Amino acid sequence: MHRLPLVSLATLATLTTSACSPVLSRPTAGTAVIRGAVTGLALESPKALSIARHTPGGATLQLKLAVTNLTCTLTEAADHVTVDVAAFALGTYLIPKGYPALTSVTGTTARGHACSGNASGTATCHDAVLSGTVTITRIGDLETPVEGTFDLQLVDGSLSGSFAAYRCD
After folding, report:
1. Rounded CA separation 104/89 (Å)
2. Most distant CA atoms of the chain, gap in Å
3. Comparing C-alpha atoms, which of 48, 31, 15, 25 is closest to residue 114?
4. What CATH number does residue 33 fall under?
5. Distances from the Cα of 27 to the Cα of 10, 24, 31, 55, 166, angstroms
6. For the chain, what is the domain count?
7. For 108-156, where are the E strands, in sequence order?
8. Measured between alpha carbons, how far is 17 from 20 in angstroms, rounded to an integer?
9. Which runs of consecutive H residues, i.e. helices, occur in the chain?
10. What is the structure's pLDDT at 19?
11. What is the pTM of this model?
């Protein structure tokens, strides 16, 4: 009969946790610089926050940028910019006129809008897009931010800037 060495529950929990779920050292949100203005929104900041979401099994990438209150689970509490990109790949994506009429993105297109915070349950979105671009310059693993720049021209303002957004997937 073989006797196995006794291992404490604390040691076993540590071994199990480190083997099955690595501890991520990245913050919950990345950084961003937002320049410009949109009527009624507070978005301009050299120290804004950003997150990225990649649809599992899909080709799309969603970017969210806000001055405050932005995490992977809290995405619409503050005024924010949302950009949906057609592919999870490096490149420049055009944001054509008319977000409301653009129900999906394909190829090298993207769509974007700026919305008020949703603390009361209703957000006001500025989605009358004239034009824009988003350029993805870096995509890494979950520990490396998605980096790039954006330019969004709306009927009632314009926004541009850069982001280094950590992924939430």
Report:
1. 17
2. 80
3. 48
4. 2.40.160
5. 27, 8, 10, 20, 8
6. 1
7. 110-115, 125-126, 129-138, 146-154
8. 5
9. 9-20
10. 37
11. 0.80
Strand-pair partners of 30: 50
28/51 Cα distance (integer angstroms): 8
How far apart are alpha carbons 150 and 66 in whole angstroms? 14
DSSP state, 24? P
- Of 18-27, 58-67, 96-105, the least confident: 18-27
Q: What is the DSSP code string of 15-56?
A: HHHHHHSPPP-S-SSEEEEEEEEETT----EEEEEEEEEE-T
Residues 6+ apart with CB under 8 A from 47: 31, 33
Give the N- to C-terminal CA distance of the chain in Å, as an integer: 47
pLDDT at 144 over 50: yes
Does residue 7 belong to any structural domain of this protein? Answer: no
Q: Using only the alpha carbons of the chain, give its radius of gyration.
A: 20
Residue 167 has pLDDT above 50, yes or no: yes
Q: How confident is the model at residue 30 (pLDDT cuts 50, 70, 90)?
A: very high
**Is 33 inside any structural domain?**
yes
Range of the domain at 113: 26-167
User: Is 3 contained in some domain?
Assistant: no
Per the domain annotation, does 129 fall within a domain?
Answer: yes
Cα–Cα distances in angstroms (integers) from residue 37 to residues 4, 17, 34, 43, 44, in the given order: 67, 46, 9, 7, 7
